[in-house]
Amino acid sequence: MRSPRLLRPAPARLVAAALLLAALAGGAAAADISGRDGYGRARRLHMRDKVVEMFYHAYDNYMAYAFPHDELKPLTKSFTDSLSELGNLNLEHLPHDYNGSALTLVESLSSLVVLGNLTEFERGVTWLSENLTFDVDARVNLFECNIRLLGGLISAHILAKDYISQRKDGVYQDQLLHLAENLGSRFLPAFETPTGLPYAWINLKYGVIENETTETSTSGCGSLILEMGALSRLTGDSRYEAAAHRALRKLWSMRSSLNLVGSTLDVLSGKWIEYSSGIGAGVDSFYEYLIKAYILFGSDEYWDMFHSAYLAVQKYFRHGPWYHEADIRTGEATHWQLTSLQAFWPGVQTLLGDVAAANLSHREFYNVWQRFGVLPERYLLDYGILHPTEKYYPLRPEFAESTFYLYQATKDPWYLEVGEAIIGSLNYYTKVEGGFASIRDVSTMKQEDHQHSFFLSETCKYLFLLYDDSFLRKQNYIFTTEGHPLPIRSTWHEKIPASDVPSNWTSVKVSSLLSMIPNHLKLELTRC
User: Fold this and answer.
1) Most buried among 308, 330, 338, 459, by the most CB within 10 A?
2) From the centroid of its chain, how far is CA 394?
3) Does the annotation mark 288 as catalytic?
4) Distance (Å, whole) CA 26 – CA 472
5) Does the annotation count 284 as an active-site position?
6) CATH number assigned to the domain with residue range 11-526, chosen from the 4 options 2.60.200.30, 1.10.3720.10, 1.50.10.10, 1.25.40.10
7) Do 436 and 447 meet the contact criterion of CB atoms below 8 Å apart?
8) Active site includes 398?
9) 399-457 residue pLDDT tens
10) What is the DSSP letter of 207?
């Protein structure tokens, strides 16, 4: 029997149908803190306050011991200028005169607004406006710099326009947008390749250095569209969105006959290097940005890509509640392992409306969390043991993020209890006098001297929103992969000029997705 035809949902309708929510459907879906879900108002307020305390313990220690450097070393109460190290496994080409870009401050700005601290937010905006520069001889990872710095600046600019400019004594003159545009312009040389796929590394002052590696990841060149697209919409300069869009199109054109993409590739030849792939490291945010780009910009092209990719993932990577890795040419399993980055997937499924599947996977992640106290970076499913070298937990946010999304979609207080467990573990295992330390080995809970900036931009933010989503009642937002909110605006659904993007690409034929969507959501989708 033929599957029923899926009528492509309008972005806003897709969001409403998925019940997401506060993050996307504004006040109508936002939960209050009254305790009407059976959890209890006092208990909710108590947990919210615990998260606030966590955030400021991390933030205040960063400001005291690391600012204006990039990240805090909480055990030694010192700092690391880590922007040039992010994604740099071999620590090659590190700059000698780079003194940081206040990375954690940039990452914290949107969280300060979410927590309601506009005074500290404005202080941060003022300092960055007067001191931050990107004219530095530093080789940085394009993906990391994009999601952390560019995304942080763009989101903070929008929030500054909303919160500072509207105050009687507030003065904001687009300083952060000017910084974002300056940074974005430094990205563009990375896209000057025969394929349009960007180099993974760029020197902020000199562009692509001689003999630069041509290998990059799928996430690295396929997770730029939200930030660079938003920059184009805010500045009127279409070059940023066009570059990211062209790269995404090229990447999708490289998919296998099974509609699967590999994990690493060569930007000059446009050929896959690693054919084994999954939904974890190297690929994760590629899938996330397809559906979020559709919601943010309204282009059917993004929906077509995501829809086909999602069907392929569910067919070839899923094994019950787990997701393994497979060869994109054959669909045959290659690695049976859970990775902490995979924990973002239930959130994406919730965004889509596939809540039952999201809940199933989320509960398995929670079982692993309960077993170890935190979520290990890599767990071998076929052996039921930790990966021998990747036993760490760097304060990652993905499990908390999916917990937030699922609670917003279901209002099941069980997810609030999961949040309690996450908060309890973070305070028990990772809180130290100088901040929050990563875990080097989850089997011993030995700590590592590093507080990642995403702990403030994502982990604390999603946990706070789990118990108090009042920030989301005033505006419709989508969150970037680094947790930075971008507003959903109808004006952003206008297409960029056709001359700015290549035309030699054909959209995939959209099949039915209705069989994967809960029955109570199908009616909403077919009304689009």
Assistant:
1) 459
2) 15
3) no
4) 6
5) yes
6) 1.50.10.10
7) no
8) yes
9) 999 999 999 999 999 999 999 999 999 999 999 999 999 999 999 999 999 999 999 99
10) B
